[in-house]
Design brief:
255 residues, alpha+beta, 2 domains, five-stranded antiparallel β-sheet, three-stranded antiparallel β-sheet, 9 helices
Length: 255
């Protein structure tokens, strides 16, 4: 599929599919176009989109569709990947010489168009692939007071590119997530986990200071015995450890 001689237009790919000799269609990402494709594999748990995948979808907020298996999702956006890495666990990110299947099975609640999301893409990318110095950073509670260290972390979060969004979530504002508290909880925990270098205890301690904190945080799930808060943080950290209509002129029918 990476041979340009095999590429065709969207119309040509549709005609080839109509002949019945192909199983589906794919779009070939190339360095000459502005598109980035993100593949979230095995993103469905118990018939629902997994929280780690939902937090990525919400954060990037661009056209998203189901994969052919309906167990994965593809996010399409305009932007440029800021680094060379392309895969971590169940998450793949591509912008050139890669064919991603397109189904047209739009994920309800996501935009119908492919939007430019450079700032959001960079935040997502560096959370997925932290720079070496950031990966080696370890936060210790010893050596400085909790108040001082937490205050420093919160100041860094507020001063980041997405600082305004962080501040709104920290204040308990869920309007950016349609009033959905669970999605807002995931989003805030994702940001806190990034700045806290994956320290689950610290994420929990910080979240309890936020405006999103409510009694549900400590309610235990009847099956697992975990609290809602523990499950939320675990899903976010799993997504980071796993720390993962299409437009264009090049489409290809595939078998």
């Amino acid at each position: 599929m990476n041979d340009p001689r095999t590429w065709g237009s969207f119309e040509e790919a549709c005609q080839a599919l109509a002949c019945g000799h192909y199983a589906g269609m794919a779009f070939v990402l190339d360095h000459d176009d502005p598109f980035v494709g993100i593949d979230l594999d095995q993103a469905v748990e118990e018939g629902q989109i997994a929280p780690w995948a939902r937090s990525i979808i919400d954060g990037l907020h661009s056209y998203t569709e189901w994969s052919p298996s309906r167990q994965g999702l593809h996010i399409w956006l305009r932007g440029a990947l800021p680094g060379p890495r392309r895969r971590e666990g169940a998450i793949e990110v591509y912008q050139d010489l890669r064919a991603l299947t397109i189904t047209g099975w739009h994920l309800e609640g996501t935009p119908l168009q492919i939007d430019r999301r450079q700032e959001e893409l960079e935040q997502f990318y560096w959370q997925l692939f932290p720079p070496e110095a950031e990966r080696q950073t370890v936060y210790h509670q010893s050596g400085c007071s909790d108040a001082d260290s937490d205050a420093d972390l919160l100041a860094r979060a507020r001063g980041a590119r997405n600082g305004q969004r962080f501040a709104r979530l920290w204040a308990g504002d869920t309007s950016g997530y349609g009033g959905d508290h669970s999605r807002a909880d995931l989003a805030l925990c994702g940001m806190l986990a990034f700045w806290a270098a994956g320290d689950a205890e610290r994420v929990d301690r910080l979240f309890r200071q936020s405006g999103l904190m409510r009694p549900k945080w400590d309610v235990r799930h009847y099956h697992s015995g975990e609290t809602y808060g523990q499950r939320t943080i675990a899903h976010v950290l799993a997504g980071q450890d796993v720390h993962k209509t299409a437009e264009g002129s090049r489409s290809t029918a595939h078998t």
